[in-house]
Design a protein that fits this description.
By secondary structure, this protein is α/β, with parallel strands linked by helices. The chain has 9 helices and 11 strands.
Length: about 250
């Protein structure tokens, strides 16, 4: 069946140069965006229940912009002034750049990776006798904790925000040719909102092995998969599929 409508389970890109925009115009598609999940911050009481006291940590490990936002939100809520001596270990340049929303670089020590926690190994080892705080969501992959454990660092996980299923009830009678997912949480949201969901003629597009597995475990057939050597991005995977079935 020809593709005319696509729903992407993420916020709409702000850039006019988004590859989705080009895809939409080139193939005359209707592409809508709707986050299937969203983030909610925990409050100071919940942080204290985790026995977390920010003043006990010399270093902060930051792997996402959400982690940055919620760490500083809670610092403000708990009236904690982060010392200038605190060091920040950012997973990527994007996270480090975003950190400037809250701190002045010339007054702080910021260490930046290239997208993987292993990039920071040598600099983390320099401070192995110090304490590290790792702000996270309630959902956490094992790669970073395992890496920190292998380095034998004194680190503590702080759950500062949660991934929550969005209310999609207004979409109950709306149908799309393709549904696009980027995380197992998105698949979970689909079935929590629509327990009786039947795939029928809807095509499923999934990014990443964990998302593909979650979709297939839920009984869905995944017709569009990314990344692959021929389709390193989701938009390329969708375009290749659209062109194939013309």
């Amino acid at each position: 069946m020809k593709v005319k409508t696509i729903l992407v389970s993420q916020p709409e890109p702000s850039s006019e140069k988004s590859p989705y925009k080009r895809l939409q115009e080139k193939h005359k598609l209707t592409i809508d965006f709707r986050p299937f999940i969203h983030v909610e911050g925990v409050d100071a009481k919940e942080v204290r229940q985790q026995k977390i006291d920010f003043k006990n940590y010399d270093n902060i490990i930051l792997t996402s912009r959400n982690a940055v936002d919620h760490f500083f939100r809670l610092c403000k809520e708990m009236r904690y002034s982060v010392p200038n001596t605190t060091k920040y270990f950012c997973l990527s340049e994007a996270v480090a750049y975003y950190l400037q929303k809250y701190v002045i670089y010339r007054k702080r020590k910021v260490y930046v990776g290239k997208g993987k926690i292993g990039d920071l190994e040598s600099v983390l080892k320099k401070f192995e006798k110090e304490t590290f705080l790792f702000p996270t969501s309630d959902i956490l992959k094992k790669d970073v904790p395992n890496f920190l454990d292998n380095l034998k660092l004194k680190w503590t996980r702080a759950i500062l925000y949660r991934t929550v299923v969005s209310d999609l009830s207004d979409l109950r009678d709306v149908y799309y040719d393709i549904l696009v997912f980027f995380s197992p949480s998105g698949i979970e949201s689909l079935f929590k909102n629509f327990p009786d969901f039947k795939q029928n003629e809807t095509r499923i597009s999934a990014y990443g092995n964990s998302t593909i597995k979650a979709a297939e475990d839920a009984g869905l057939i995944v017709q569009i998969k990314a990344p692959t050597p021929k389709s390193p991005s989701m938009t390329m995977a969708i375009e290749n599929y659209v062109e194939k079935i013309k």
